[in-house]
TrEMBL record:
Top-level taxon: Bacteria
Matching InterPro entries: DUF1800 (IPR014917)
Coiled-coil region list: 59-86
Phylogenetic lineage: Bacteria, Pseudomonadati, Pseudomonadota, Alphaproteobacteria, Hyphomicrobiales
Annotated protein name in UniProt: Uncharacterized protein (DUF1800 family)
Keywords: Coiled coil
């Protein structure tokens, strides 16, 4: 059957129906969500980007102070101090994780939210790579990914690849030109990780014809990019940059002088390569339409890319305006994040429903902290022992959002590799994940279902995407809560 435009727009290209919001009624309304999304005040990082950046600086100062204090401290006190800082950083991450879910559930700009999630997965970084990544990753999405998803692809690559979160995640901070002043002095050498993923994942794609020599030379060109450990901002340090010229895919970068312009030129050239537009357009269409997207749609997207110098809004428009993009609903499975978000939207979850669970001291952490504190008190003067702040509270994790995403296999901001989370049907529609989804559906229905009639809820959540057999099953549900759970667990709700 052919679904209504608004149904396909909400389910295939958006974050699902939310009763308080009117779904897009045209391609133009879908595209208008991109500038609207840029104007929207993000709910994460909590307190805004300025506050998040200040937290990073303060944490760096505390880490320096801790190192100084630990020079004369006993081992038990060192452990307490390290744990205190880690708990503080983890608490900030937890606040941002809950706010990130809140952003997706409450925003009226579902297409923009879907694109932000797609591009964050394309340019994957992980919050557990290093301690300060817990503070950097929310900032990375807010200041590098989201502002650039409607502009030129080359600008998005520059913002993502040269952000301190990516430079730390892919070990660029450990990459030294072997013949650079600092490389020679410290006997440090090249790390190829960023060079490899820039070619293989971010631009050209695997099997597109580049060689290992291209990967290595790209890594040489990228030397010099590092992170200032006081401000945690990216900077170019010429003293760690490999001198001389390097060839990547037949083009030369550098020469007598080496600098940031060489890196920017490399990214521009990679972004403009035909292999890049083929790889990226196929991946975008594969995310929204089907694991094997219609070739006609991909061709229309690559043509728009070529005509508009990689302007991503033009690429999205080409996809949305192609008739094939609106055929054959249900070809994609919702990954856990999207499933949870669409379920909470259907249930009209409020900001209060999406908050974290408040502060608590987990038992394992409390036991470890108390044990170390007792050891510290045994060797420290009484006054010093009294000065210890042992509460170190952490956030309770909301079982409907952050905890659920981890349980369903897609922990927020923690992809399994630089390639990100899988984006295919078979990964997410299998026995284990489906059982966990059913458990989540029951919990969500119990907590947020209220006195909703399941038949009305089915109509509101799926509209004309609901199949007759699902309508019949929900109508015969033995209880209100079971009926709501059946809607959230239905095949139609798990697909798009």
């Amino acid at each position: 059957m052919s679904l209504a435009f608004s149904t396909m727009a909400a389910l295939r290209f958006g974050t699902g129906f939310r009763p308080q919001q009117v779904p897009p009624a045209s391609v133009e309304e879908l595209l208008a969500q991109l500038p609207a999304g840029r104007r929207e005040t993000l709910l994460f990082p909590h307190g805004g980007l300025g506050a998040a950046r200040q937290r990073i600086v303060e944490a760096a100062d505390k880490q320096d102070a801790l190192k100084r204090a630990n020079k004369t401290a006993d081992e038990a006190t060192k452990r307490v101090n390290r744990k205190r800082l880690m708990v503080e950083i983890n608490t900030h991450l937890g606040e941002d994780e809950h706010a990130r879910f809140m952003q997706a559930v409450l925003s009226p700009n579902g297409f923009n939210e879907r694109l932000a999630t797609f591009w964050l997965n394309h340019f994957s970084v992980s919050s557990i790579k290093a301690q300060f990544m817990r503070l950097l990753v929310p900032v990375y999405e807010a200041e590098a990914i989201r502002p650039n998803i409607g502009g030129r692809f080359a600008d998005l690559v520059k913002a993502a690849v040269l952000h301190p979160a990516m430079l730390i995640y892919l070990d660029q901070v450990k990459s030294f030109g072997p013949n650079s002043p600092q490389g020679l002095k410290r006997k440090l050498g090249l790390n190829e990780n960023l060079g490899r993923e820039l070619l293989e994942l971010h631009t050209l794609g695997a099997g597109s014809g580049y060689s290992q020599a291209d990967v290595r030379n790209a890594a040489f060109v990228l030397t010099g990019m590092t992170v200032d450990r006081r401000s945690y901002r990216a900077r170019y340090a010429v003293k760690i940059a490999e001198p001389g010229a390097r060839d990547v895919l037949g083009r030369t970068y550098g020469g007598r002088g080496r600098g940031l312009p060489d890196i920017l030129a490399l990214i521009e050239d990679l972004a403009a390569a035909p292999a890049t537009r083929d790889h990226v357009c196929r991946k975008i269409a594969g995310h929204f339409l089907a694991d094997t997207p219609p070739p006609e749609v991909v061709r229309a997207m690559t043509s728009a890319w070529e005509d508009e110098d990689g302007d991503l809004t033009a690429v999205y428009a080409a996809m949305l305006r192609h008739p094939k993009s609106w055929d054959d609903e249900g070809q994609k499975a919702k990954p856990p994040f999207d499933y949870i978000v669409s379920g909470l939207r259907a249930l009209s979850a409020t900001q209060e429903d999406l908050q974290d669970g408040g502060l608590a001291k987990p038992r394992k952490m409390a036991q470890a902290v108390d044990r170390d504190a007792m050891e510290a008190r045994a060797t420290m003067p009484a006054a010093a022992g009294k000065s210890l702040d042992l509460a170190m509270p952490t956030l309770r994790v909301n079982p409907l959002t952050v905890q659920a995403a981890a349980r369903l296999g897609q922990p927020l901001w923690r992809p399994p590799s630089p390639a990100g989370f899988e984006d295919n049907f078979s990964t997410w529609i299998a026995g284990g994940p489906l059982a966990d989804r059913i458990a989540w559906a029951r919990l969500a229905a119990a907590r947020l279902g209220g006195d909703r009639d399941p038949r009305d809820f089915l109509q509101a959540a799926l509209r004309d995407a609901a199949r007759q057999d699902t309508i019949d099953i929900v109508s015969r549900a033995p209880s209100r809560q079971m009926g709501l759970s059946l809607v959230l667990a239905s095949p139609e709700f798990n697909r798009r």
